Amino acid sequence: MCIGIVIFATDSKTYAQDKLNLSLDVASGFVWRGLAINTLPVVQPSFTFSPGKFSIGVWGSTTFVSDWDQPQEVDVFISYNFTPSFSINVVDYYVYNSNSFSFNKQSYFNYKKEETGHVFDLQLVYDGVIKAMVSTIIAGDDLNDNDNNNYSTYFELGYGNTSYGVDWEVFAGAVPMTSSFYGISKGGIINFGLGLSKSFEITPTYSLPLSVKFSVNPATESVWLVAAITLF
Prior knowledge:
By secondary structure, the chain is mainly beta. It has helices at 2-8, 103-106; strands at residues 19-27, 30-32, 35-38, 42-50, 54-63, 72-81, 86-96, 118-127, 130-140, 153-163, 166-175, 188-203, 206-217, 222-230.
């Protein structure tokens, strides 16, 4: 998989100058790698600073209303782009519930292996017409029965194109081994489906992107249809 990603990464486009991007999405729910993180509507703000080939930023997700079963998330990430399509990323996922009485995992600065709510993810990503990703949890809240890091790994392949004015992508993701982090007792496909997106012109200077994703997790026998709009 890694060799294949490197072979794909052959383009040589010119990189843009340093820039700061801010974004705000609103979605009907939040499904990530075949896992339903939020089943209520969410707002997802982010900002990214890109000095040359590096990018660093923060992304968040929270529901519109407080609910015992709906966690919130704040992720810090840094990436290096070898080419415009091929990158290596490190993401610090921090998921918490503001209604929880568990103080240890509520504390953002608690990095103790058995208590932390942080998960650190190392990724290799190729994002072209053919998309490929290898992701491994390298530290944090991903422990096996012996309280050692489980190194849960996730692979995803996708292919995208445009038809009838709509961008589409088919994708499939799998975990090769037992992982409590992904909620499976053995390896297998946990995420496959179809994503569609289209940008609607509101004014001559403003368009509203809409995306819809249909995904299935065979391991949990779950299915979701999630819609999202990018306000800016």
